[in-house]
Design brief:
It comes from Halobacillus naozhouensis. Helix content is 40%, strand content 24%. By secondary structure, the protein is an alpha/beta fold. The longest helix has 22 residues.
Length: 216
């Protein structure tokens, strides 16, 4: 399986491309925003595509040619304003979904926020509510397609070393989870067709990742 990783230069994205390249039955194509970001992925033996998510659907679809699945891990980041949140976390996600349709790719995994419910938008502080709203509507757009989607809602992300153990279910108590473990969860979700059409929250826990994903 060849996987286009959108937002590959992000912290989850880098872990994900590394894990995919180390796997026996997957290979990664890293979608990055700048050519100077390519060397990290080329050293892993991964193909790269230089595309900005603010470009059009056709450009993103061209980057997806020849792949079997897409993982959307991109984000505008905490230092940008609401404008970039809308352009990347919402419009960039929707354009990626539409690009998958154009390219004839059925499998798409979306990395979302922990809670993207309408209640979460209303409860979020003003500085965070645009992000939650963007993720909410991107998730809803994806769920209304006929794509083989999985939506992953990670808890509070950390840069701790992954433990390989998580708790994953439609609803879990809010807690932390290492980005490295989230990347492993994505790999397991790609390998497990039972995750198609499902969304789940994931935090650190006591189950091995493959077991946790299988039981969803």
């Amino acid at each position: 399986m060849k996987v286009l990783v959108v937002g590959a230069n992000g912290q989850i994205g880098k872990h994900l491309v590394s894990f995919i390249q180390d796997s026996d039955n997957q290979e990664a194509k890293a979608m990055i925003r700048k050519q100077e970001q390519a060397s990290f992925f080329e050293d892993l033996g991964a193909e790269t595509a230089v595309v900005d998510l603010e470009q059009d659907i056709e450009t993103i679809a061209a980057a997806a040619e020849g792949v079997d699945a897409i993982v959307f891990t991109a984000g505008s980041g905490p230092k940008t304003g609401a404008d970039k949140t809308i352009l990347i976390d919402l419009d960039g996600a929707v354009k990626t979904i539409e690009a998958a349709k154009v390219a004839g790719i059925k499998r798409l995994i979306m990395i979302s926020s922990f809670d993207t419910s309408r209640e979460a938008i209303q409860a979020a502080p003003s500085s965070f509510s645009p992000y939650v709203a963007a993720k909410h509507y991107a998730d809803e757009w994806l769920k209304r397609t006929d794509l083989d989607y999985t939506i992953i809602h990670p808890g509070l992300l950390t840069n701790d070393k992954g433990t390989g153990q998580v708790e994953a279910a439609y609803e879990v108590d809010r807690a932390e989870v290492p980005r490295e473990d989230v990347a492993s969860v994505i790999v397991s979700s790609l390998e497990n067709e039972t995750t198609i059409g499902k969304e789940f929250q994931v935090v650190s826990g006591t189950k091995l990742i493959k077991e946790a994903i299988t039981s969803i």
